[in-house]
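tool_call: predict_structure(chain=1)
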Amino acid sequence: MIIVINTHLVVSIQYRMHPDISSLPSRLFYGNRLLDGPGMSMNTKQPWHEHERFGSYKFINVSWGSEESKLHSLWNASECDVALDLYTLLIKEFPQVKSVARIGVVSMYKAQVSELRRRFIKSFGDQILQHIDFNTVDGFQGQEKDVIILSCVRSGPGLQTVGFLSGIFFS
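tool_result:
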């Protein structure tokens, strides 16, 4: 757990994330002061980390998609398709994921979460809700999962920013 008060790092050792993942927030937000607990590489290692399509994390630019508005929220059909394809490939390559891994499908937008849930249920039936937790970033806060599929929604030709991340990754 990381507690931030007045933007000063209070807790300096993390015990949840694979070091490949924790290095990004450590560098970008904490001036490389966030350290990994002992043995975190081995404690958090999963079989799919060695797979070229997954790794410990993967950014996928869904540049052909575009967001649409639904009930004062945004959703992106192409990102829903990619999320569904990723999960399908994950369980094909690593069938044990369905029984041993805790999986979250997360987005910043309620409309996207709703559409993702609908499409996963259509493809896998209602029982998918026993294997995957669908939620917004706010609703998901504080939970831990072995696999997270994060749908940012904001994409499309010529898009150069992703909301609050614009100053971090695209400057």
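agent: Confidence is low (pLDDT under 50) at residues 1-6, 164-171. Proceeding to next step.
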